[in-house]
Amino acid sequence: MSVYREIAHNGLWKQNAILAQVLGLCPLLATSTSMVNAVSLGLATILVMAMSNFAVSMLRGFIPHEIRIPVFILVIASLVTVVDLLFNAYLHDLYLVLGIFIPLIVTNCIVLARVEAFAAKHSAGLAALDGAVMGVGFVWVIGLLGAIRELIGQGTLLSGIEMIIPGTHALQILPEDYPGFLIAILPPGAFFVLGLMIAARNWLDHRANERAKARLHAQQRLQTAP
Fold first, then answer.
1. What is the pLDDT of residues 7-22, one digit of tens each?
2. Which residue, among 114, 129, 148, has the nearest Cα to 32 in the 3D structure?
3. In DSSP terms, which residues pair with 156 in a beta bridge?
Protein backbone atom coordinates (compact mmCIF):
# COMPACT_ATOMS: atom_id res chain seq x y z
CA MET A 1 0.00 0.00 0.00
CA SER A 2 2.91 2.35 0.64
CA VAL A 3 3.87 2.11 -3.05
CA TYR A 4 0.36 3.07 -4.17
CA ARG A 5 0.20 5.85 -1.59
CA GLU A 6 3.52 7.24 -2.80
CA ILE A 7 2.39 7.15 -6.44
CA ALA A 8 -0.82 8.97 -5.53
CA HIS A 9 0.94 11.59 -3.40
CA ASN A 10 3.57 12.23 -6.08
CA GLY A 11 1.05 12.57 -8.90
CA LEU A 12 -1.47 14.71 -7.07
CA TRP A 13 0.86 16.97 -5.10
CA LYS A 14 4.58 16.33 -4.50
CA GLN A 15 5.58 15.86 -8.14
CA ASN A 16 2.53 17.49 -9.70
CA ALA A 17 3.34 18.02 -13.36
CA ILE A 18 2.20 21.65 -13.33
CA LEU A 19 2.62 23.02 -9.81
CA ALA A 20 5.91 21.26 -9.02
CA GLN A 21 7.53 20.49 -12.39
CA VAL A 22 5.90 23.31 -14.42
CA LEU A 23 5.44 21.09 -17.49
CA GLY A 24 2.85 21.20 -20.27
CA LEU A 25 2.26 24.94 -20.12
CA CYS A 26 1.23 25.34 -23.76
CA PRO A 27 -2.10 23.43 -23.52
CA LEU A 28 -2.52 24.60 -19.94
CA LEU A 29 -2.49 28.28 -20.83
CA ALA A 30 -4.35 27.95 -24.14
CA THR A 31 -7.30 25.77 -23.12
CA SER A 32 -7.93 26.92 -19.54
CA THR A 33 -10.15 29.83 -20.59
CA SER A 34 -13.10 27.88 -19.21
CA MET A 35 -13.52 24.98 -16.81
CA VAL A 36 -15.20 22.71 -19.38
CA ASN A 37 -12.45 23.15 -21.98
CA ALA A 38 -9.72 22.64 -19.39
CA VAL A 39 -11.20 19.50 -17.83
CA SER A 40 -12.02 18.01 -21.24
CA LEU A 41 -8.43 18.31 -22.40
CA GLY A 42 -7.30 16.98 -19.03
CA LEU A 43 -9.48 13.89 -19.38
CA ALA A 44 -8.05 13.24 -22.83
CA THR A 45 -4.58 13.54 -21.31
CA ILE A 46 -5.46 11.02 -18.57
CA LEU A 47 -6.51 8.47 -21.19
CA VAL A 48 -3.33 8.95 -23.18
CA MET A 49 -1.04 8.85 -20.14
CA ALA A 50 -2.59 5.72 -18.62
CA MET A 51 -2.67 3.82 -21.92
CA SER A 52 0.80 4.91 -23.06
CA ASN A 53 2.36 4.02 -19.69
CA PHE A 54 0.68 0.61 -19.81
CA ALA A 55 1.73 -0.05 -23.41
CA VAL A 56 5.35 1.01 -22.91
CA SER A 57 5.64 -1.03 -19.72
CA MET A 58 4.35 -4.11 -21.54
CA LEU A 59 6.76 -3.57 -24.44
CA ARG A 60 9.80 -2.34 -22.52
CA GLY A 61 11.61 -5.66 -22.83
CA PHE A 62 11.41 -5.51 -26.63
CA ILE A 63 12.43 -1.86 -27.12
CA PRO A 64 16.16 -1.30 -27.74
CA HIS A 65 17.54 1.35 -25.42
CA GLU A 66 19.11 3.32 -28.28
CA ILE A 67 15.80 3.97 -30.06
CA ARG A 68 13.48 4.09 -27.05
CA ILE A 69 12.47 7.77 -27.47
CA PRO A 70 11.24 7.44 -31.10
CA VAL A 71 9.37 4.26 -30.14
CA PHE A 72 7.80 5.97 -27.12
CA ILE A 73 6.65 8.86 -29.31
CA LEU A 74 5.22 6.42 -31.87
CA VAL A 75 3.22 4.64 -29.16
CA ILE A 76 1.96 7.94 -27.72
CA ALA A 77 1.06 9.26 -31.19
CA SER A 78 -0.96 6.12 -31.98
CA LEU A 79 -2.95 6.43 -28.76
CA VAL A 80 -3.48 10.18 -29.23
CA THR A 81 -4.89 9.45 -32.69
CA VAL A 82 -7.42 7.06 -31.13
CA VAL A 83 -8.48 9.66 -28.54
CA ASP A 84 -8.62 12.37 -31.21
CA LEU A 85 -10.93 10.26 -33.38
CA LEU A 86 -13.17 9.44 -30.39
CA PHE A 87 -13.56 13.13 -29.56
CA ASN A 88 -14.31 13.90 -33.20
CA ALA A 89 -16.93 11.16 -33.35
CA TYR A 90 -18.74 11.60 -30.04
CA LEU A 91 -17.94 15.15 -28.86
CA HIS A 92 -17.64 16.95 -32.16
CA ASP A 93 -18.51 20.46 -30.94
CA LEU A 94 -15.99 20.20 -28.12
CA TYR A 95 -13.48 18.73 -30.56
CA LEU A 96 -13.80 21.85 -32.73
CA VAL A 97 -13.19 24.09 -29.71
CA LEU A 98 -10.11 22.21 -28.48
CA GLY A 99 -8.79 22.05 -32.03
CA ILE A 100 -5.11 21.31 -32.41
CA PHE A 101 -4.49 20.83 -28.71
CA ILE A 102 -5.73 17.22 -28.69
CA PRO A 103 -3.20 16.09 -31.35
CA LEU A 104 -0.55 18.16 -29.55
CA ILE A 105 -0.80 15.80 -26.56
CA VAL A 106 1.80 13.83 -28.53
CA THR A 107 4.36 16.55 -27.82
CA ASN A 108 3.23 17.15 -24.23
CA CYS A 109 6.36 16.70 -22.17
CA ILE A 110 4.31 15.40 -19.22
CA VAL A 111 3.37 12.26 -21.16
CA LEU A 112 6.85 11.51 -22.48
CA ALA A 113 8.44 12.28 -19.11
CA ARG A 114 6.33 9.70 -17.25
CA VAL A 115 6.84 7.09 -19.96
CA GLU A 116 10.62 7.55 -19.74
CA ALA A 117 10.95 8.02 -15.98
CA PHE A 118 8.41 5.46 -14.72
CA ALA A 119 6.70 3.23 -17.26
CA ALA A 120 9.93 1.99 -18.84
CA LYS A 121 11.14 0.77 -15.42
CA HIS A 122 8.06 -0.65 -13.66
CA SER A 123 5.32 -3.23 -14.09
CA ALA A 124 2.32 -2.55 -16.29
CA GLY A 125 -0.12 -2.15 -13.40
CA LEU A 126 2.00 0.39 -11.54
CA ALA A 127 2.80 2.19 -14.79
CA ALA A 128 -0.88 2.53 -15.70
CA LEU A 129 -1.68 3.75 -12.18
CA ASP A 130 1.15 6.29 -12.31
CA GLY A 131 -0.06 7.59 -15.67
CA ALA A 132 -3.65 7.87 -14.47
CA VAL A 133 -2.71 9.61 -11.20
CA MET A 134 -0.36 12.01 -12.95
CA GLY A 135 -3.20 12.76 -15.35
CA VAL A 136 -5.57 13.40 -12.45
CA GLY A 137 -2.98 15.77 -10.97
CA PHE A 138 -2.93 17.59 -14.30
CA VAL A 139 -6.76 17.67 -14.46
CA TRP A 140 -7.39 19.15 -11.03
CA VAL A 141 -4.87 21.93 -11.59
CA ILE A 142 -5.98 22.83 -15.11
CA GLY A 143 -9.65 22.51 -14.05
CA LEU A 144 -9.15 24.84 -11.08
CA LEU A 145 -7.20 27.28 -13.26
CA GLY A 146 -9.98 27.23 -15.87
CA ALA A 147 -12.67 27.73 -13.22
CA ILE A 148 -10.87 30.72 -11.68
CA ARG A 149 -10.22 32.35 -15.05
CA GLU A 150 -13.78 31.77 -16.24
CA LEU A 151 -15.30 33.07 -13.00
CA ILE A 152 -13.19 36.23 -12.95
CA GLY A 153 -13.35 36.79 -16.69
CA GLN A 154 -17.03 36.05 -17.36
CA GLY A 155 -18.73 35.54 -14.00
CA THR A 156 -19.83 32.00 -14.95
CA LEU A 157 -18.86 28.39 -14.39
CA LEU A 158 -19.19 25.43 -16.78
CA SER A 159 -19.52 27.60 -19.85
CA GLY A 160 -19.80 25.27 -22.84
CA ILE A 161 -21.21 22.33 -20.86
CA GLU A 162 -23.98 22.08 -23.46
CA MET A 163 -21.39 20.69 -25.88
CA ILE A 164 -21.11 17.63 -23.62
CA ILE A 165 -24.58 17.44 -22.05
CA PRO A 166 -27.18 18.90 -24.44
CA GLY A 167 -29.88 20.96 -22.77
CA THR A 168 -27.71 22.16 -19.90
CA HIS A 169 -26.41 25.68 -19.43
CA ALA A 170 -23.56 27.48 -17.70
CA LEU A 171 -23.97 28.59 -14.10
CA GLN A 172 -24.20 32.36 -13.64
CA ILE A 173 -22.25 32.82 -10.39
CA LEU A 174 -21.72 36.58 -10.42
CA PRO A 175 -24.52 39.09 -11.20
CA GLU A 176 -25.67 39.15 -14.82
CA ASP A 177 -24.56 42.76 -15.19
CA TYR A 178 -20.98 41.77 -14.26
CA PRO A 179 -18.85 43.45 -16.95
CA GLY A 180 -16.18 40.77 -16.96
CA PHE A 181 -12.43 41.07 -16.59
CA LEU A 182 -10.91 40.49 -20.01
CA ILE A 183 -7.33 39.94 -18.92
CA ALA A 184 -8.39 36.87 -16.91
CA ILE A 185 -9.28 34.95 -20.08
CA LEU A 186 -6.25 36.17 -22.02
CA PRO A 187 -2.82 34.47 -21.78
CA PRO A 188 -1.44 37.02 -19.26
CA GLY A 189 -4.32 36.15 -16.92
CA ALA A 190 -3.34 32.49 -17.12
CA PHE A 191 0.22 33.34 -16.09
CA PHE A 192 -0.97 35.47 -13.17
CA VAL A 193 -3.38 32.84 -11.83
CA LEU A 194 -0.92 29.98 -12.32
CA GLY A 195 1.78 31.95 -10.53
CA LEU A 196 -0.54 32.49 -7.56
CA MET A 197 -1.41 28.77 -7.50
CA ILE A 198 2.27 27.78 -7.50
CA ALA A 199 2.95 30.30 -4.73
CA ALA A 200 0.06 28.88 -2.68
CA ARG A 201 1.40 25.34 -3.10
CA ASN A 202 4.90 26.40 -2.02
CA TRP A 203 3.45 28.19 1.01
CA LEU A 204 1.47 25.12 2.05
CA ASP A 205 4.54 22.91 1.63
CA HIS A 206 6.60 25.34 3.72
CA ARG A 207 3.99 25.31 6.49
CA ALA A 208 3.87 21.51 6.45
CA ASN A 209 7.68 21.30 6.68
CA GLU A 210 7.76 23.75 9.57
CA ARG A 211 5.13 21.75 11.46
CA ALA A 212 7.06 18.53 10.82
CA LYS A 213 10.26 20.13 12.15
CA ALA A 214 8.42 21.38 15.23
CA ARG A 215 7.05 17.89 15.95
CA LEU A 216 10.49 16.36 15.46
CA HIS A 217 12.10 18.85 17.86
CA ALA A 218 9.36 18.20 20.44
CA GLN A 219 9.94 14.45 20.20
CA GLN A 220 13.69 14.93 20.58
CA ARG A 221 13.20 17.07 23.70
CA LEU A 222 10.94 14.42 25.21
CA GLN A 223 13.49 11.70 24.49
CA THR A 224 16.38 13.67 26.03
CA ALA A 225 14.38 14.89 29.05
CA PRO A 226 15.57 13.36 32.38
1. 999 999 999 999 999 8
2. 148
3. 172
